[in-house]
């Protein structure tokens, strides 16, 4: 029985080492992140001004440039948004392509 104690201890440490990164990753990336993005384009969904105003933005995420198209902007005319200007967005903790405008 004494010969099994070191084997069980090593197996326990190996199991802990395998599970720990997944647990820490899930704990760390639980909340939506606030990011300042750059406006690439602002336009209406249809030709008339009564249509929904949409925005295309780009931002840096972990060293990569992400482009997100068609974010819905409530309560603002497209003419008020300057291409190249900053806008605050919320980025999903699961998929960085899922974003919403921080209003």
TrEMBL record:
Protein name: DUF3592 domain-containing protein
Bilayer-spanning residue ranges: 6-24
Organism: Paracoccus denitrificans (strain Pd 1222)
Keywords: Membrane, Transmembrane, Transmembrane helix
């Amino acid at each position: 029985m004494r010969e099994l104690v070191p084997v069980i201890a090593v197996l326990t440490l190996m199991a802990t080492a395998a599970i720990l990164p997944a647990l820490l990753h899930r704990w760390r990336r639980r909340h939506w992140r606030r990011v300042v993005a750059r406006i690439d384009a602002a336009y209406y969904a249809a030709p008339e001004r009564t249509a929904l105003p949409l925005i295309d933005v780009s931002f840096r995420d972990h060293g990569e440039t992400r482009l997100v198209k068609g974010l819905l902007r409530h309560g603002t005319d497209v003419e008020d948004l300057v291409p190249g200007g900053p806008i605050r967005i919320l980025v999903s903790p699961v998929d960085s392509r899922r974003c919403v405008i921080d209003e």
